[in-house]
Amino acid sequence: MSAADLPTLPSHPSRPSGGAPGATGEVLSVLRSLPRSDQRRWGELYVRGLLAVREKKTMRALAQGAGSGVEQSLYQFISKSPWNDGPVRGDLARLLDERARPRAWVVQPLVIPKVGRHSVGVGRQWVSQAGRLVNCQKAASVWLAWDEASCPVDWQLALPECWTDREDLRRRASIPADVGPRPPEQCGLDSVRGMSQEWGLRGGPVVMDLRETAPQPVCADLVAGRIPFVVRVHPSSVALAPPGPPTGPAGLLSTLHGCRMPVEWFDHVTGTTRATAVGAARVTLCGGAARPEPPEPLDLLLLAAWAAPGARSPSEFWLSNLARSRLGSVYRTAMLRRRVERDLAEAGDDLGMRDFEGRSYRGWHHHMTMVSLAHAATALSPRAGPVTSRRAAAGRGGSGCRVTGTSVV
Question: CB of 366 within 8 A of CB of 83?
Fold first, then answer.
């Protein structure tokens, strides 16, 4: 089939496109970085399929009604064709940065349950939110978030050692030689670093959840890269020292309690304006990294938030290097993670985020790049209201559990 004979996907009779024609066309323009015209046409066909097809986004479903041979050609484009997804993602991020003026880069972990063991990166892995081992893929994405919407622009697949240590699996999935085992938080940090250094985007602020890891190495890397951040931490995972008396954890908590003030913020998950008591204090983050040499202490801002007015202990702790910003602004930036949680829950399944079943490492990244374009088309369009998740509506899930963010329910 020649490039001139490539089909266009017919409109789906039971579902709108998911994005206004102008927004979709604008987003699809980033495919210009693909070197061949047939690749650009297949990319457009794939994205329009993600927007139009209601059921699971298999190659057969995306190609339905587009002519003979299309299913195999889409498979070849996603799983085998050697096009570089980096320029496409970078162009998309710059488009969103210009059009939407995002207020934060939100690092969002993702757990994708699977039935079999053949998809790239699948293994029985511990999922703390489920409290058990889950046969799944783990990934991390970086979302550009603003008040009206959010969109993922970069993806990393967190490969477990059972894949990186076996040459037969690496060869079968065409895993690059320089890709090793990495936890999701390191994947997210690598994405942030690449977005800042390789794509030339102005940094963050980065919003990230580090409650399950030592935050010192991540914070140190962000500080070294001059990237602003607000990261959630578990109080027991770090050694925090206040800059002066009173000293010790009890004294620090007393300081935070004494200076707290109400902060109003919009909760994108519930669609309501909420008020939370937030206190802040300058602290030194010292320790928490398993390195041969002692880590350098970091002077940061610690935020504590009390969810209930009469609560004695804070419900959240955040570390930030935005010491010169207003307290309310820093906390509202952190709460943009709720914007991402909403968009992931509403549109993630509907746009095929968890549907790729291929064995190719390259194919997974290609599919997720197309998912990002489909997300962007909806994010830049007027929102017609909440989207009902396809899997929630149909009551199905590949492993018998539904995943939202990092939670499995």
Answer: yes
**Minimum mean pLDDT range among 224-233, 236-245, 279-288, 391-400:** 391-400
40 — pLDDT class (breaks 50, 70, 90): very high
pLDDT at 323: 87
Length of the chain: 409
Residue 323's DSSP bridge partners are: none
| Look-up of token digits 């096009």 | 83
253: pLDDT strictly greater than 70: yes
Residue 122 carries which side chain, given as an amino acid letter? V
CA nearest to 89, candidates 24, 27, 154: 154
Determine the number of helices (DSSP H) and then strands (DSSP E) in the chain: 14, 13
Q: What does the alpha-carbon distance between residue 325 and residue 344 come to, in Å, rounded to a whole number?
A: 28
Paired tokens of 395: 């009551």
Closest residue by Cα to residue 302 from 250, 213, 230: 230
**What is d(CA 80, CA 262) in angstroms, rounded to the nearest whole number?**
54
Please, are residues 69 and 42 in contact by the beta-carbon 8 Å criterion? Answer: no
pLDDT tens-digit map of 126-179: 998 888 999 999 999 999 999 999 999 999 999 999 999 999 999 999 999 999
Alpha carbons within 13 angstroms on the beta-carbon side of residue 66 total 30
Give the chain's radius of gyration (CA, Å): 22
Residues ≥6 apart with Cβ < 8 Å to 94 = 199, 200, 201
Which pLDDT value is given to residue 9?
A: 43
Asked if 163 contacts 121 with a C-beta cutoff of 8 angstroms, the reply is yes
Give SS3 for 276: strand
Which two tokens mark 299? 């002077």
**DSSP states of 165-186:** T-HHHHHHHT--TT-----HHH
pLDDT digit string, tens, across residues 365-381? 999 999 999 999 999 98
d(CA 106, CA 87): 20
Alpha-carbon separation of residue 139 from 66, 152, 197, 208, 357 (angstroms)? 32, 12, 21, 14, 15
Cα–Cα dist 211/142, whole Å = 18
Closest CA to 240 of 135, 314, 129: 314
Q: Tell me, what's the pLDDT at 287? A: 61
Average pLDDT of the residues in 50-58: 90
